[in-house]
Every structure is written in C-alpha cells, then in structure tokens.
TrEMBL record:
<feature type="domain" description="N-acetyltransferase">
    <location>
        <begin position="6"/>
        <end position="161"/>
    </location>
</feature>
<dbReference type="InterPro" id="IPR000182">
    <property type="entry name" value="GNAT_dom"/>
</dbReference>
<dbReference type="Pfam" id="PF00583">
    <property type="entry name" value="Acetyltransf_1"/>
</dbReference>
<dbReference type="GO" id="GO:0016747">
    <property type="term" value="F:acyltransferase activity, transferring groups other than amino-acyl groups"/>
</dbReference>
<dbReference type="InterPro" id="IPR016181">
    <property type="entry name" value="Acyl_CoA_acyltransferase"/>
</dbReference>
<protein>
    <submittedName>
        <fullName>GNAT family N-acetyltransferase</fullName>
    </submittedName>
</protein>
<keyword id="KW-0808">Transferase</keyword>
Amino acid sequence: MGACRRMLYEFEPVNERYAREILSWSYGKPCSSHDEPAEGLLAVLLAPENNYHAILKDGELVGFFCAGPDARVPGGNYDGDALDIGLGLRPDLVGQGLGLGVVKAILRFARERFSPAAFRLTVATSNRRAIRVYERAGFEWECLFEGEGGAEFAQMVREAEG
C-alpha cells in the first residue's frame, strides 16, 4: 500500500477578496520595490488571462503566483519556450523557512496546469533571500539586465521536469 501524501498548499484563481488582501501587503526595505500603488492592479490580479493564483494553506492566504507574460519585468529577454513565473509570499511569513516548499508547490501545480518545457523567473538581484530559495529549487542564473529605474534583475531558469 502506497503512502498518502498530504497536499500542503492549495491553489485557487485570485478572487476579489484575495486580490484586495494581496494589494494591502507591504514588504518594506529592502523589498520596497514590491510595494506598488493598488490603482489599476486590482483589475490585473483579477483578469483570468493573467493567471494569478492564490496560494492557500489550511484555507488561509499565504501567497500568490502568476504564470506567463505578467511575470515578466520590462527590459528582460523573454525569448524561448520557458513559462515565466512570478510569486509573492505574505510579508509576515517571509524569512520563516517556507519559501522552498512554496516554490516547489508552485512548480508542481504549474507543471500540471501548463505543461511547460522549462520555468523562468525574474528577480531583483538585491533580493538575496529569494535568490537562495530559487537556487535551492534548481533554478540557475541565465542573465542579468537593468530594469526600469536602474534596478538590476536576474533571470533564472530550470527544466520543468525534476
């Protein structure tokens, strides 16, 4: 008899309640670049074509992710067939050791839903904590680029399988 695996995280399309909660989050320094004004972003989070999903644990919102063009940062090179992933963990949960498990759950879900050949994500090089998590999840540095406002970003990729 096989072992039963309990799903740690569940995914649902972002609804208005989740979107408003996500837009209320504030990361502070050094991640204040993630704190953007909510104007116009509510519609972006709710648009089905943007593939925003709430990440839930025991029915509680712990983060979100998006897949596809909305996960891209202007200035990057997004050629190729990798699925772009963007994500955010609820600010009070950052630094509590949840990142790797959340990233692995996102990759599992996205692999089943989108069947990509590879995953790509874009992260500010100043976000060292996130970069360490992505490296532990099997992502490798692909390139660096300067985004709008002069911030430096890294694009990281990994194969979808594995």
